[in-house]
């Protein structure tokens, strides 16, 4: 498989996600500069990494969403190509209109840096097919603006179409919208596009791929991508 | 021509920063503050002297970048 990680000024998780992809999927991704206008030919997967692109100026992800490479990312998504946005990458996907809604300041204003428990809501997607049904996973989160917000109609549509892929849950594995760590509507941690080829999520699966760090709950996400994109 | 663009959160959107400022004002003992909502101000200088043209430019700027219309609304004012 051929992947591209987009590097924006202020991205800081591109190394982590490139390492996860290289280690699990077996091929090193191309690091693509934000001001380029084309993806490397034959790119299967585009990753927008975490970080603080443009210092979160104006709104998180707002300026990166208008970067030179983004029309190529839109075109890639439009023809069914896979796009993964993690943390700031999710914020960029929302700002660019590839995913609906927006990520706003955490409800209790604190920057949250800890592990979060999530339920995998769907395993029939290119990103989650290697998870067990209803699996509860532990991914790190590190964000100040992870509070997913959308109008009531958009939320109804996302839920109705089964496009919520990851949801925050409590220690007992239950969803609790009142206690959700960052205030996200419907405890949403990650959503997909209509055709399920674009995924955005706030938590960091790329940081839980090595047993040395205490968990490998993020590995199946990259194994899923590898299995989908395997070439004969 | 100079203009001021005001971007504010729509009234249905919760504003935790505004709430925190409201609480700080209360703890400072500033009397009579019922509520605070935080927004952004952009002072823009325009090349055109034509007001209609300038307004169209600013509207375009707001829709494309300055405001996220999912949660924010904007207002354009001309100064001087």
Task: Give the DSSP E fraction of chain B (strand runs of 2 or more residues).
Answer: 25-35%
Assign the CATH architecture of chain A: 3-Layer(aba) Sandwich
Give the termini separation of chain B. 8 Å
Task: Provide the β-strand percentage band of chain A.
Answer: 15-25%
User: Strand-and-helix sequence of chain B, N→C?
Assistant: EHEHE
User: Over all CA atoms, what is the radius of gyration of chain A?
Assistant: 16 Å
Given helix and strand content, the structural type of chain B is alpha+beta
Number of helical regions of chain B: 2
Q: CATH H-level name of chain B... which superfamily?
A: Phosphoribosylformylglycinamidine synthase subunit PurS
Profile the largest sheet of chain A: 9 strands, mixed
Q: Order of strands in the sheet with the most strands of chain A?
A: 2-1-3-4-11-10-9-6-7
- The beta-strand count of chain B equals 3
- The tally of structural domains of chain A comes to 1
Which segments of chain B are poorly predicted (pLDDT under 50) over 5 or more consecutive residues?
A: none
| CATH fold-level name of chain A | Rossmann fold
Give the overall average pLDDT of chain B. Answer: 94
| CATH level 3 topology of chain B | Mth169, Chain: A
Biggest β-sheet: strands ordered side by side in the sheet of chain B:
2-1-3
Overall spatial form of chain B? elongated
**From N to C, what is the helix and strand string of chain A?**
EHEEHEHEEEEHEEEH
